[in-house]
């Protein structure tokens, strides 16, 4: 999956064996972009933070991303 597919702002690709691993990679990338003050990523981070204010919506978003990950072919 790439950064945009995971709620981010770029095409950086992540590859992992589990959704938990890929979520952690995405989180680390987000923190790096936050430190670099990358405007597009800052906007994406704000959108995710807004979603986090609604636990049910965040849970649904997370589950949908997990389903999307699990449907991908293995490389």
Structure overview:
This protein starts with 18 loop residues before the first helix and ends with a helix. The longest helix has 17 residues, at 19-35. By secondary structure, the chain is mainly α. It has 3 helices and no strands. It has one domain (4-71). The chain is 64% helix and 0% strand.
Question: Quick recap of the structure?
Answer:
The chain contains 3 helices and no strands.
Proportion of beta-strand residues: under 5%
- What letter string, H or E per element, gives the SSE order? HHH
Helices, by number, come to 3
Shape: globular
> Which value, in Å, is the CA radius of gyration?
12 Å
Helix/strand-derived class? mainly alpha
Overall domain count = 1
Offer a few descriptive terms.
mainly alpha, 75 residues, single chain, 64% helix
How is the secondary structure organized here?
Elements: H1 19-35, H2 39-52, H3 55-71
